[in-house]
# Entry
Amino acid sequence: MNQTAKITLRALVLALVATAAGATSYVMVPDEALVDEAAAIVQATVEAVEPAPIAGPPSTDYFVQIERLLKGHLTGSTIVVRVPGGIGPDGVGLRIWGVPEFRVGERVLLFLAPRADGTYGVLHLMLGAFSEIEAGGSRVAVRALSEALGVPLAPEAGRATPEPLRDFAGFVNWITDRTGSVSRPIDYYIDPAMVDVRPLRANGRLLDDRCTQLSFRWSEFDRDEAVKWAFDATGFDGKGAGRAAFVRARRLWTRASEGAVTLANGGVVRGRMALSGHDDTNLIVFGDPKDDVAGRFSCASGGVLALTGVWFESGRGQSCERVGAGRKVGHDGRQYLEIVGADIVVNDGAACLLSRDLLVGARLFAHELGHSLGLSHVAGKASVMSGELSSAADAIEPLEASDVEAVRALYGTAPRR
# Structure
C-alpha cells in the first residue's frame, strides 16, 4: 500500500471511530409479535423531554400526549416514557446507543410496557418506537436502527432482514384491526423506490451535542494498563456458554490489537447491578436483573439481546450547565471524552441463543466490546463491527482488517512501555 493510500485509509478509519457507536444488539421482532406482546400501544406527540428525577443511573423522561390509544388502558392523557441513559446532576453521563430517542413536537407510535414506578418503558427498546417522518408527500413510520446490531435468528439465514418502510396511517389501521381481533395480511409496506428517502434520518441523540460534542476513548491503555471486565455469575448464561463466548471475545480484541488494548479478567462477582452507577467495575451481567430492557428475548420471536453503556464525566449537568472540569483525553491531535467505566447487560431469555452457538455469542460480544472501546460500525459484512451479524460468524478469528485498523487508529499500534 502506498503512502497516499495509507493516509486515506487512516482518515476513513478515524472518521469511523469519531461517529456514534452502536451498542445494542437485537433480533428483529415481527410486527404481529410487537402488537401481541405490548401492554399498551399509543399514537402520541412528544410534549417535553427531561432528566428523570430519580436516584441512581441517569435516565431520560419523555412526556407524551396521547392522541389515540390503540391497545390497553392508561390513566390520563399524558404519560411518562422513561429510557436509560443521560447526564446526571453531578456531570457523570451514561451513554447507551440504540435506545429510542425523540424530539419535542414529534409524533410517535409506541409499543409500551408498564414499570413499577408508574412510568412506561418502550417494548424491546428501539424496536417498539416509531417516529412519523414526512418523505416526498408520504407519512412514514420509521424507527432508528442505525446505532444497533441486527442479528439473524438463525446464523445460516445470512444477513438480517432489511427494515421495511411503513405507511404511518396504514400501520396504525392494521394495528387497530389486529387488537380488535381482525387479522389481515400486512398491507402497509411502502416501496422505497416510490419515496424520497433523504428525510428518513435518525432522531436526535439522547445526549445533547452541546453537553458531549466529543467521541469516547479509554486512557488506561495510554498508561499500559488493562481494562478489566468482571462477570456476574448470578444470572443464567446458558450453562456457561455466555461466559465462554465473552472470554473468547475479550481475548480476541487483545490479540488483534497486538497489545494496544488489553481487556483482562476482572473476576467473578454475584448480585452486582450493571448500569446502576459508575463504581469502578466494568461488568457483564446476564438476565437483565434491573429490567433495563422492557421485554424478554425469545428465540421464537426475537427481541433485544444485549446493550452496552459507557460512563463518562462530561463536566456538564442535566441542563448542559458546567458543574466540573470533566475528564477528557487527547490522542493523535484530537480530543475525546474519557471513558471511566462500561457495563454490558444481556437480556433475559438470551441464553437460548448463546447456548446454541458459541461462535455467534463470541461475535456478538466482540461487537459489544468493540463499541465499549469507542469504535463505531465499519463497512463489510465479515467485519465484527459491521452493523449486521451475518453467517460469517465462523470468520470471527482473526478480526477483519477494518476492525484492526479502527482499534489501532484509536489506541495506537503498540504498547507504551
In short: Residues 1-22, 201-209 have pLDDT under 50 and may be disordered.
